[in-house]
Specification:
429 residues, 2 domains, 7-stranded mixed beta sheet, alpha/beta, TIM Barrel, 42% helix
């Protein structure tokens, strides 16, 4: 039998602190060595390695799939009573499909740490449903909710959970997960139940290895990490010990050997890979969106405001110099993609003036911008005073320009509140 194409979708690096051992570079190199063209990174509760994975995978010509192994509580994530039920948590693999999924995964990880932290950063199914768009879910290892119920003999509950997760994610966005850890007493029970469940609820199954290190010979080093994590000594007998489990980044042939009757658990990983097409936009300026009137772009609306400002400021005395300066600055602003930036600033500055808040005439390099003057951001005519626009903005400028504004001390908070209300409190710093 020809070995199906395979991608590792459940992988921990050294960013799974005191648990994972492999460095991102080494994991990528090993995947390439084994003939793979994609790899996921799913560290416990964090996304520390996401950018590193993306950059290094791009350099080495392999597809990066950003993910996280979340801790999910069956209760409310805000419930933190010192009882066994609230300390209970399960695992869930989340993988990023697109930009919306990336933002949602970051949001979930943030919520887990800032709101749900109780021994570990946790989410619950309610908040997962709220931020599930653009994400793919895997049922995880035997610590996942579904396999845990199977192991406990609660098959009906496992089925109920499988249907719920199927509903939480988009069509084709949830997969059941099996692993080949024969020496783990509950793994065979979990796998058998997963295959049965998959047929009954119509969910695809993928095989994962729960990778914690790169090669088999790294197992002893990872064992020492566990000893540090659990505050135990290597020579102690009754301690957590995973030496009997192969948590290395295995070859497709090794994985197929564990599931000879189910080659689809390898090929199904490509169903996940094909859905994941996200690239981090590094080095690009991300500006807030300014709502412009219907039929306008940010630049056409900015031009309209400038034309109105030109007539208001100069009336019948508009000269060719005025128009040339306006057109030149607008062309630079458009080339740099800063149309929205000017619209945002003029909006809150003009709101302040309209509401009786004293606004400074303009200071710093922004006073050299004719567009700032025409839109009401500043009250200084840069043409009259021979001020240079290029000190403020030019196509060669590496960093974004910034407009320094002065508002009356006793009304400054009013301006901030206006901006928070318009763009959202979590979008204003």
């Amino acid at each position: 039998m020809q070995t199906p194409k395979y991608t590792h979708l459940h992988v921990h690096s050294h960013y799974s602190l005191l648990d994972g051992l492999g460095k991102v570079d080494d994991l990528i190199d090993r995947a390439l060595e084994l003939g793979m063209d994609s790899i996921a990174l799913t560290d416990h509760g964090v996304m520390y390695g996401a950018v590193e994975l993306f950059i290094k995978a791009k350099e080495k010509g392999i597809k990066a799939i950003i993910g996280c192994e979340m801790y999910i509580t069956p209760n409310d994530l805000h419930s933190k009573n010192p009882i066994a039920e609230d300390r209970k948590r399960h695992h869930l693999i989340l993988l990023v499909k697109d930009e919306e999924g990336y933002h949602n995964l970051m949001k979930l990880v943030s919520i887990a740490h800032l709101e749900g932290f109780y021994y570990k950063p946790r989410i619950d199914r309610k908040v997962l449903r709220q931020y599930s768009k653009g994400l793919i879910g895997l049922s995880a290892c035997v610590e996942g909710e579904i396999p845990a119920q199977i192991v406990m003999g609660n098959y009906d509950k496992a089925k109920e959970l499988a249907l719920e997760y199927k509903d939480i994610f988009d069509e084709g966005g949830f997969f059941l997960e099996v692993q080949d850890h024969k020496k783990f007493p509950n793994q065979a029970v979990a796998n058998e139940g997963i295959f049965k469940l998959a047929k009954e609820v119509g969910l695809p199954v993928v095989a994962t290895c729960d990778v914690h290190y790169v090669r088999k010979e790294d197992a002893s080093a990872q064992d020492i990490l566990l000893c540090v994590q659990t505050n135990r000594k290597v020579q102690e007998v009754d301690r957590m010990n995973l030496m009997d489990f192969d948590l290395s980044l295995r070859s497709p042939e090794e994985i197929l050997a564990g599931f000879p009757d189910h080659p689809e658990v390898l090929s199904n990983t490509q169903l996940v890979v094909d859905q994941c097409d996200f690239k981090i936009k590094l080095g690009e300026t991300q500006l807030p969106h300014f709502e412009v009137p219907a039929g306008h772009t940010d630049m056409t609306y900015l031009i309209e405001l400038c034309e109105a400002g030109l007539k208001k400021k100069y009336g019948e005395n508009i000269t060719e110099e005025h128009r040339k300066r306006m057109d030149y600055e607008l062309s630079v602003i458009e080339k740099c993609g800063y149309g929205s930036y000017f619209l945002i600033v003029q909006d809150f500055v003009n709101w302040a003036r309209a509401n009786g808040i004293v606004v400074g005439p303009g200071r710093g390099s922004a006073a050299g911008s004719f567009i700032s003057y025409l839109t009401g951001i500043t009250n200084v005519d840069p043409i009259e005073y021979n001020l240079l626009f290029e000190r403020f903005l030019n196509p060669e400028r590496v960093s974004m320009p910034d407009v320094d504004m002065d508002f009356a001390d006793n009304r400054r908070e009013d301006v901030l509140n206006y901006v928070r209300q318009k763009y959202g409190n979590d979008h204003v710093s």
